[in-house]
Design brief:
Elements (H helix, E strand, L loop, with lengths): L1 H10 L2 H18 L5 H35 L1
Helix pairs in contact: 2-3
Amino acid sequence: MNKLIEKLTDLINVKTIVTFAVTAIFSTLALREEIPTETVMAIVVMVLGFYFGTQFEKNNNNKEDDNHGDNN
């Protein structure tokens, strides 16, 4: 249960909120046909790619830090 709460609190940061907000806003605009779906796809893929790329990099850096700590 504590791990679930920890994961949920990790989701509540500015980068995550902005990512979800941008995705929701552009998806809504596309559904209303106010902007072309191709534009939405390009923007959402870029934002999600950046988000998951930074998360991946953050996790890799944490693992590397843990491994270097074991060698000392």
